[in-house]
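Input (structure):
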């Protein structure tokens, strides 16, 4: 797939940082300000990110000083780490970590794990580069553009207040290199740290939902008009195990801009925006690894949250009406009706159908059964002498149905009308796509 552009009109998008020979990604080399409640020191060292197998962000320093020896072999508290004023933020070419002198009578080297570190001033930045770590998108094909430095796969999209382009990192130097990089250009200057943090979280949530896993969106770097680094948020990327995906690789390039547009639409409604983001976090947790006894209640929490917010926002229920409709399953049933999502139990779900018959309630819809199982999991049995929990088959079907409901409700709220892969599909190709149920066009009645 190729989309031509005028030569030189687009700049290539490259990572600011790349792995060193040892696999670490060096983000800073020079003086480090170290401090505890009692003392302060200055040491030469490095700040580096490692992407695998468990991403970490560490400060490395070494020397012969007594305080350093005490820190390594004694009980001294771990110091905080900061950069001195005026420290150079451009990517270092070489390490600043001192080498052990041949004549050294003693020598100590230490590494400190740092949660994150904000340096510089994003108010001086004209664009932001976000580094993406994921194994889920390695085979995604993006449109090809002509840039000032040759052809590159890029995907333009928008998020509130920003124009963005996602680009593949080629060549990836190691398996622990960044997979993609995003260039974000603000629609208004200056920007501040809060706007950058909000952008980072929106992108994290969006890519999480598309890939079905936690996708790393760090480090985040602000570039000035001359292309030099003026600010950064350094941190270890958050990555996680992959779950089922509604968006396979061949749909990604179309789905991302559509969902990003949905985030732009709901951004005018802060309450809805916050609820959708939180519901996606619950969805990722319910869709990831773990026991079904936990994942089912988590998926139901996401559905309850969306029902509470959407039904009020759309005027389907007033706050007073919502309080009267106190049964969570009934609220979710109404949410699914609003969204155009079928509530009937799928015909292949024999375990839940048998549970419905055992409950002697033929009117139970799929959503009612989901919350019936959820209640059985989170509340203790009525009698100690008659302990019974849902069967393994009931748990599997309930998890499939609950996560599908949550997936579909999120897509509906974000206005998605493209294709997707249904997790309820039990036969046929694993990547067979369908249109969301609310986009189905009913056939015109035949003339009599």
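Output (sequence):
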């Amino acid at each position: 797939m190729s989309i031509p552009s005028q030569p030189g009109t687009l700049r290539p998008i490259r990572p600011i940082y790349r792995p060193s020979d040892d696999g670490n990604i060096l983000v800073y080399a020079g003086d480090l300000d170290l401090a505890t409640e009692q003392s302060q020191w200055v040491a030469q060292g490095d700040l580096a990110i490692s992407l695998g197998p468990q991403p970490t962000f560490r400060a490395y320093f070494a020397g012969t000083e007594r305080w350093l020896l005490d820190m390594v072999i004694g009980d001294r508290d771990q110091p905080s780490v900061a950069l001195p004023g005026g420290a150079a933020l451009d990517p270092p070419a070489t390490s600043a970590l001192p080498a052990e002198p041949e004549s050294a009578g003693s020598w100590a080297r230490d590494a400190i794990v740092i949660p994150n570190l904000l340096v510089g001033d994003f108010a001086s930045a004209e664009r932001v580069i976000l580094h993406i770590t994921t194994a889920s998108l390695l085979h995604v094909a993006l449109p090809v553009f002509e840039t000032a430095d040759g052809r590159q796969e890029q995907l333009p999209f928008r998020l509130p207040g920003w124009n963005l382009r996602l680009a593949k990192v080629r060549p990836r130097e190691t398996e622990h290199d960044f997979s993609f990089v995003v260039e974000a250009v603000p629609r208004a200057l200056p920007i501040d740290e809060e706007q950058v943090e909000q952008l980072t979280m929106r992108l994290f949530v969006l890519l999480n939902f598309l890939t079905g896993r936690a996708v790393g969106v760090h480090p985040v770097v602000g570039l000035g008009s001359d292309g030099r680094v003026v600010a950064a948020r350094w941190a270890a990327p958050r990555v996680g195990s992959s779950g089922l995906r509604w968006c396979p690789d061949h749909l990604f390039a179309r789905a991302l801009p559509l969902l990003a547009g949905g985030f732009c639409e709901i951004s005018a409604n802060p309450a809805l925006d916050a609820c959708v983001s939180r519901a996606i976090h619950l969805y990722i947790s319910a869709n990831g690894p773990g026991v079904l006894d936990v994942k089912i209640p988590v998926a139901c929490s996401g559905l309850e949250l969306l029902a509470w917010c959407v039904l009020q926002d759309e005027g389907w229920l007033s706050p007073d009406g919502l309080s009267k409709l106190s049964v969570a399953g009934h609220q979710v049933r109404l949410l699914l009706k609003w969204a155009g999502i079928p509530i009937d139990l799928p015909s292949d779900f024999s375990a839940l159908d048998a549970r419905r018959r055992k409950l002697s309630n033929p009117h139970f819809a799929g959503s009612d059964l989901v919350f019936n199982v959820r209640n059985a999991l989170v509340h203790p049995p009525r009698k100690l002498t008659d302990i019974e929990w849902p069967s393994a088959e009931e748990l599997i079907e309930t998890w499939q149905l609950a996560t599908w409901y949550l997936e579909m409700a999120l897509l509906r709220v974000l206005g998605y009308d493209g294709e997707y892969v249904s997790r309820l599909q039990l036969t046929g190709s694993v990547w067979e796509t369908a249109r969301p149920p609310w986009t189905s066009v009913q056939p015109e009645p035949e003339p009599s």
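Notes: Confidence is low (pLDDT under 50) at residues 441-448. The longest strand covers residues 25-35.
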